[in-house]
Amino acid sequence: MKWIGFVESFPVHSQDCSRVLTGLNEELALKSVLLGNGLTPSEADFIVFAAIHSFVIGLPDSEKGKLPHVMRWIDYIQGKENLGKLFEKILVKKAQFKPQSTKLVSNLQADSSAKGTSQNTKKAEKSEAELNLKKSDNGKTAMGNKESTPEKKGSPETEAVEKDKEVNVSLLNLQVGLIRKAWKHPSADSLLVEEIDVGDAKLRQVVSGLAKYFDPDELMNRRVVLITNVKPGKLRDVMSEGLVLCASSKDHTVVEPLIPPESAKIGECISFSGIDGKPEGVLNPKKKQFEKIAPNLFTDDKGVATFKGIPFMTSGGPCTSSISKASIK
Predict the structure, then answer these.
(1) Does the keyword RNA-binding belong to this entry (predicted)?
(2) Of all helices (H) and strands (E), which one includes residue 191?
(3) Are residues 73 and 207 in the same domain?
(4) Domain boundary residue, one of 62, 80, 98
């Protein structure tokens, strides 16, 4: 009934429309869809989309930029359902990577070409008699050195796409986990060891640096967000098979694991509205993939965990933290 009323009372004048859309933007800050906590659009999503379409499609980019959650939702609904036959697609401007200047590369190539030209000029100055003498002595035909061809580099567009892939959160396999057991690391006072259930037959053993902030008993039966495709390895002689994502205050005096909703299913994967992609089988430590993604992970002013402002979503709603505007790692 709420959204039917929204549609029936949607104003005609642009100033009033902007005010109503600002309210809708706030409503969508913690949601991927209008009804429920999941990711499946409802009838309410479609009727509201239809009601605001004619106004939003005419907005300049500057005004669209003031409605980030509405535009994210519109992009998601357009991509989720085949609405092309009924509505003209609303263009949603997304941030683009700007490649660094290629001035240095150009200078190096110019220097290389200049050197090659100088060398070829000197070789050309050799007399024909000298070349013939060399031919008779060695029985070989003198051949001029071929100019080296600079290695072709990818286009800026290709480099931008590859760069974007390196910092895409879809590379991470993020799952809802439940800590079944926790104890102190046998040889490191700053570390704890946890056994975490992610729906597999075997519990995952994970080493985390939470000893300074939690007693082992405080972590028992606590839900967490776990990266399950990090490369397994030993931390102070204890095997670790995952990474618990935690929110941290600016001065790092307060640290806590992210909190999935109680209704989220153990083992389900975290999703991000509008972001597609398949997680890596195992993250490559040499590529420092997580280190490149981490600066874009943070909680917003309401404590919702996000990647570039897009909430960590589960079937039960977004993952959160009691620490707002915190870094996540």
Answers:
(1) yes
(2) none
(3) no
(4) 80
Distance CA 85, CA 226 (A): 41
Structure tokens at 323: 């620490």
User: If DSSP codes are grouped into helix, strand and coil, which group holds residue 60?
Assistant: coil
Q: For 135, phi and psi rounded to 5 degrees?
A: -65, -45
Among candidates 87, 91, 94, which has minimal Cα distance to 48?
87
Q: State how beta strands 313-314 and 243-244 pair.
A: unpaired
207 and 317 inside one domain = yes
Is 0.90 topped by the overall pTM?
A: no
pLDDT in tens, 51-61: 888 888 888 88
Q: Three-class SS of residue 98? A: coil
Query: What is the average per-residue pLDDT within 20-46?
Result: 82
pLDDT tens digits along 111-169: 555 555 555 555 555 555 555 555 555 554 444 454 555 555 555 555 555 555 667 89
> Which residues contact residue 243 at a Cβ distance below 8 angstroms, ignoring those fewer than 6 apart?
206, 208, 226, 227, 230, 290
In a domain? residue 221: yes
Between CA 1 and CA 15 the distance in angstroms is: 25
How many C-beta neighbours within 10 Å does residue 240 have? 21
Residue 121 lies inside a defined structural domain of this protein: no
* Residue 257 belongs to some domain of the structure: yes
* Sole residue written with tokens 């098979």: 241
- Domain coverage including residue 219: 169-328
CATH number assigned to the domain comprising residue 257: 2.40.50.140
| 269: DSSP letter | B
Count: domains in the chain: 2
Torsion of CA 197, 200, 202, 208, to 10 degrees: -40
Q: Within this chain, do residues 69 and 199 fall inside the same structural domain, yes or no?
A: no
Residue 29 lies in a domain: yes
CATH of the domain at 15: 1.20.1050.10
Q: For residues 112 and 76, is the Cβ–Cβ distance under 8 A?
A: no
Q: What are the Cα distances from residue 112, in Å, to 119, 122, 149?
A: 11, 16, 10
